[in-house]
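New to this. Explain these tokens.
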Amino acid sequence: MKLKVGLFIGIAVVVIAGGVLLAAKGKDAASQAESRKQGVLEAEQKMVVYDKSKGTIVKTNAAAGDSVKQGDVLFHVKSAEGAEVDVLSPEEGLISRIMVKPGDQLAPGMPVAVVQKTSYYADLYVQEGEIHKLDVNKSVQVRFPYLKRSAQVDGVVASISAAPQFANLRMTRERGQADLSMFLVRIAVNANADLLPGMTAEVDLDEIAD
């Protein structure tokens, strides 16, 4: 009986010591979770607005889902004065929405289409103790952990908020101890065939050199 008790105590000591060592090295589960920042992949969208004089759509050259380049003709319009006017794509990307059809009357400032740009981004919240690792235009590796096959792409820090966005409440608070300030960081990612808006993007801050 004494042997069993001694064995259990020995195992407990080893487990506790191992946990303390991992925590000291920042490799415990809580520390690892804190260093891995996740956000949702988003696609930048550009609204196409008709900016000429009143007119009527004569022909549409694009449909939802079509790829377009900057300057491609999306619509042919006949103005009230009888002139022919072209509505051009302001960006390269995909047509995500067409909002008008042939025969529709257009007025200045009227939205006619939405173009989904070829660049994606993910917004992450980084605590004040880690924000020094990031600078605008710094390259970072972005992982997509829930893809069937591992995917890792190059990303760039596009922006960092000038002030904390909110305070992350500590689970335990000692007297005089403030909550952790969280900064909003936007990571820009080039689109590719494997990536879709809505996917989970992850950046491991432990992999970034100070």
